[in-house]
Task: inverse folding
């Protein structure tokens, strides 16, 4: 089901929607890793340089920052790591490095402690708190937008862990719809800025699977999502929504999955678009 546009008087980032889904996501991740043994914590993921345990360390770090806890000092130059591309990446790596030598069971306990602290903080927040200005990974926005980004980040990392340990799960439902709103809302930017969709392009994306939907984008000076195309599509793209999410998150490469993607119309444009879907930090 495609999320519907909000009315002008609707609350853009409702605390009563976002908060329970974020807390639910915290619990799902806990249950996903709770049964891991010592070696399984070191399973590599699709994120360069990160194991399952490193993802948990990253989640601990972000929630700790939101709880007002400073990043720990580490004895390496995190900026020099090949997978660190910006300051947010460097911040993440401080926490990852600081917990790299900590056993998985202790990392899980650390995660549970910070989740308990964040649950207490979030439970005390009102809609007014969610509407307050805040610095977020996408610039100055509101605290509510930041918390929707947290649902997105945690949900995407849930998928990372599932893919790494071979534990499939339902990739649809309310958490996925809320988290993926960050992806689907960015499609016009990604197609226009990163994929260089040409002026006059009319693009239709058909997604099947747990997050099935149809996305229409037209380029008239700039790319914009539209409810319906003004004429026949110049490029069509079809794939499973799970693959689309992983491409947008930079977890996999389109060139390695072309047999799972159907392109129509101007296939050169279509291929360029799917090869430049990754937009996450």
Result:
């Amino acid at each position: 089901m495609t999320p519907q546009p909000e009315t002008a008087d609707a609350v853009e980032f409702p605390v009563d929607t976002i908060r329970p889904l974020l807390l639910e996501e915290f619990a799902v991740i806990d249950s996903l890793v709770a049964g891991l043994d010592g070696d399984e914590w070191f399973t590599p993921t699709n994120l360069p340089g990160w194991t399952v345990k490193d993802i948990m360390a990253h989640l601990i770090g972000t929630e700790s920052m939101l709880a007002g806890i400073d990043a720990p000092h580490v004895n390496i130059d995190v900026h020099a790591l090949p997978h660190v591309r910006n300051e947010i990446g460097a911040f993440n790596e401080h926490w990852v490095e600081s917990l790299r030598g900590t056993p998985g069971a202790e990392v899980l306990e650390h995660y549970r402690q910070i989740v308990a602290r964040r649950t207490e903080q979030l439970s005390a927040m009102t809609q007014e708190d969610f509407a307050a200005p805040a610095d977020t990974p996408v610039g100055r926005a509101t605290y509510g937008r930041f918390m929707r980004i947290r649902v997105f980040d945690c949900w995407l990392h849930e998928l990372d862990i599932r893919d790494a340990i071979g534990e499939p799960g339902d990739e649809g439902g309310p958490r996925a719809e809320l988290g993926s709103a960050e992806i689907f809302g960015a499609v016009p930017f990604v197609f226009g800025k990163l994929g260089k969709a040409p002026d006059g392009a009319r693009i239709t994306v058909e997604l099947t699977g747990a997050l099935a939907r149809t996305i229409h984008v037209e380029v008239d000076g700039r790319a914009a999502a539209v409810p319906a195309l003004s004429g026949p599509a110049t490029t069509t793209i079809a794939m499973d929504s799970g693959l689309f999410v992983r491409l947008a998150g930079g977890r996999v490469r389109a060139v390695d999955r072309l047999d799972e993607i159907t392109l129509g119309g101007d296939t050169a444009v279509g291929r360029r678009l799917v090869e430049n879907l990754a937009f996450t930090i």
User: Anything to note?
Assistant: The mean pLDDT is 91. The chain has two domains: 15-182, 185-274.
